[in-house]
Amino acid sequence: MSVLAIAEQRGGAVRQASLETLAAGRVLADSLGGELVAVLLGPPGIAGEAGKLATYGADRVIVGSSELFDEYVPEGFTHVLARAVQEQAPKAVVLAASAQSKDLAPRLAARLGVGMAGDVTEVGIEDGRVVAVRPAYAGKVFVKLGFKTEPALLSVRSRAYTAVENARDGTVEDLTVELDPSQLPMTVRSAATEQKGRPDVTEAEVIVAGGRGMQGPENWSLLEDLADALGDATALGASRAVVDAGWRPHDEQVGQTGKVVAPPLYIAVGISGAIQHLAGMQTAKCIVALNKDAEAPIFKVADYGIVGDLFEVVPRLTEEIRRLRSEE
Amino acid sequence: MNIIVCIKRVPDSESRVGVGSDGVSVDTDGVKFVVNPYDEYAVEEALRLKEAAGEGTVTVMTLGGEESKETLRTALAMGADQAVLLKGRPSSDGLGTAERLAEAIKACECDLVLFGKQAIDDDNLQVPAMVAELLGLPCANVVIDLKIEGNKATAEREVEAGHEVLEFNLPAVVAAQKGLNEPRYASLKGIMAAKKKPLEEVDVGDAESRVEVMQVVSPPERSAGEIVGEGPDAVPELVRKLREQAKVL
Ligand SMILES: Cc1cc2nc3c(=O)[nH]c(=O)nc-3n(C[C@H](O)[C@H](O)[C@H](O)COP(=O)(O)OP(=O)(O)OC[C@H]3O[C@@H](n4cnc5c(N)ncnc54)[C@H](O)[C@@H]3O)c2cc1C
Ligand SMILES: Nc1ncnc2c1ncn2[C@@H]1O[C@H](COP(=O)(O)O)[C@@H](O)[C@H]1O
After folding, report:
1. Each residue of A22-50: pLDDT tens digit?
2. CA–CA separation, A237 vs A97, rounded Å?
3. Chain B residues 151-170 with CB within 8 Å of chain A
C-alpha cells in the first residue's frame, strides 16, 4: 500500500514544511512496506523541484503544472488532487499543516468522503490501520485517532517531523491538468504581500515573544535586536494583550486564539503566562522566561528563568549572544 | 441580505479540561461553556452586514444537544433574528458535522454562510471548507477583512508571514479569524428580546464519525525549571546553560 504526500510550493520552490511532510509520509510508507509518492502542483517549470522531493524520500514524484497554479487555486487543486488520489489509491495522504492546507485538506476530505485529522504530531500504523496523534483544546489534551475510512487524510504539524535526506530514485511522472478557468470561482489578487524577512512563528527555530511588560510598541527594537542576534530563523511572537492593544500584528499572537507553536527555543519576555498563552507554546522544547515577578505563572513551565527588569536583562542577553556568535 | 451563521458551544478558553475517566473522552465537568470565540466574530460580521444592507435576516444554526439552546440564545441576544437547533451529536472529524449543516443550509435561501475558522474544543479547522465543498461554494478561510458590494465579495486572509486578497461571488462561505471585528456584548434589552425570537428544533440524529477516538492523554507535564538568577548579571549563566545543557544555541 502506498502513501501520497502532497507537496507545496511558493515562488517556484518546494516549501521546507513539505520536506517534513515527506519524513512523516516515509514513516507510514515504511511501516506499510509501500511506496511514498509525492505530488507537486505549481506553475510551468515546477518539475525542476521534483529532484528535491526524491532527495527527501519520495520514491516517485508526480508533477502537475499549469499557468493557473502560481498560487493556490482552491477548486483547481481540489479537482486535480482528488483525481490523483483516486488513481493512486493510497492508504494515506499527508500534507503540511499550512495556510493552504487549512482550505485544501478539508475540501479534499469532503470531495473524497473520508475522515481527516489536522495538525497531527505523530503518525503510525497499528493493526493495519492508520493512526495519528493530534492536540485538541489548544494542546490541553492530545487525542489519538484511528481512521475508519481510506485513504486517511492527515495534515502534519510544522516541526513535528524533521526533514531528512533519504535519497530515492524519484522517477518523475506528468499529471495532466485540464481545467477550465471559468470553473474557478475564486481569484487570488495578491499573495503574501508583506515581506518581513523573518519566518512565521509556526516555522521558526527560535521565537522571541513580548508581552505587556514591554510597555509599548516603541520598545520592540529591543526584541528585534535580540532576534537579529539569534539569527535568520528567529521569529517575533506576542501575547494577546499586546496584539489587542495594537502594539503588534495579529499574525504574531501565540496562544489559544493565536498560533500554536513548538520551536526548539521560546523566549517569553514580560509575559505573565496566562493559561491561553501557555496552551499555545508549552510544547516548545526549551522555554526561557524573563519577568520581574518571581511569582509569574510563566516560570512554572519555563526551563530557565531570570527574575528581573527586562529593560536591563534583554540588552545584556543580546550582547552575550552576539559575543557568542562572533566567537563561533 | 440573508446570512446563516454556524456556531458551536465550547468550553471557555479559561477552563482546565482533562482526560475523562474512560480514557477516550475529555472531562468537561464543572466547566463553563460559551459561544466559540471565533463564531462571535462571525455573528458580529453578519449583524454588521445586515445593518449596512438595511434589510435581511441573520439565522444562527448549530448541531448539538439540548444544552446548545443557550448558545443560540446568546447569539440571538447579540442581535441575530432567528435560530435553528439541529439536534444530534457532532462528529469527531469535521465531515459528519459538515454534512448535517450543509443539508440544512441547502434548504434555506441565503447569500452568505459565516463560520468561525476553528472550534476551540476539537481545533479541527475543517467544517467551513467542507460545507463549501459539499455545497459547491467558494470559501474564504481565516478571514480578517470582508467587503461586500452587490454579489461581489473581497476577503483578506492570513497566510504564512503575510496576507492574501481573495475575490469571489456570493453565495459563498466565509470563516472568521480574530481581527475581523470587535464583537458586541448582548445588551439587557437584547437578552430580553432573545427569549421571544424564534428557535426552531430539528432532530437530525448523530453525525457520522470517520475517525475513532482511541485515546485521550494529557500533554507531558512541564515541571518548573530553574531560576538562573536575578537581573542582568544572571545572563552569562543563562547563555551557558542554553548552550551546554539545553543545546539550543
Ligand atoms: C477567549 C480568550 C482567548 C485568549 N487567547 C489568548 C492567546 O491566544 N494568547 C495570549 O497570549 N493570551 C490570550 N488570552 C489573554 C490571556 O488571558 C492574558 O490576558 C494575556 O495572555 C496576558 O498577556 P501578557 O502576559 O502580555 O500581559 P500581563 O498578564 O499583563 O503580563 C505582563 C507581565 O509582564 C511582567 N512585567 C512588567 N513589566 C516588566 C519589566 N519591566 N520587566 C520584566 N517583566 C515585566 C509582569 O510581571 C507580568 O507578568 C485570551 C483570553 C481569552 C479570554
Ligand atoms: N456542531 C457545530 N454546529 C455548528 N457549527 C459548527 C459546529 N462545529 C463546527 N462548527 C462551525 O465550524 C467552525 C470550525 O469548526 P471546526 O472545523 O470544528 O474547527 C466553527 O467555528 C463553527 O463556525
Report:
1. 999 999 999 999 999 999 999 999 999 99
2. 19
3. 154, 157-169
Q: Do B160 and A186 touch (CB under 8 A)?
A: no
Phi-psi region of B57 (alpha: psi -120 to 50; beta: other; left: phi over 0): beta
A310 touches ligand 1 (CB under 6 Å): yes
A307 within ligand 1 shell (Cβ under 6 A): no
DSSP codes joined into one string, B65-96: -TTHHHHHHHHHHHT-SEEEEEESPPPSSHHH
Which residue from A159, A144, A133 is spatially nearest to A261, judged by alpha carbons? A159
Element (H, E) at A83: helix A74-88
CA distance A35 to chain B (A): 24
Residue A194: pLDDT band with limits 50, 70, 90: very low
The string of pLDDT tens digits covering residues A272-312 is 999 999 988 998 999 999 999 999 999 999 999 999 999 99
The answer to whether the Cβ–Cβ distance between A305 and B226 falls below 8 Å is: yes
The model's confidence at residue A259, banded by pLDDT at 50, 70 and 90, is confident
Contact A287, A302 (CB under 8 A): yes
Q: How far is CA B15 from CA A109, A250, B31, B122, in A?
A: 31, 23, 6, 14
For B57, the grid coordinates are: 435576516
**pTM of the full predicted structure?**
0.92
Peptide bond into B171 cis (omega under 30): yes
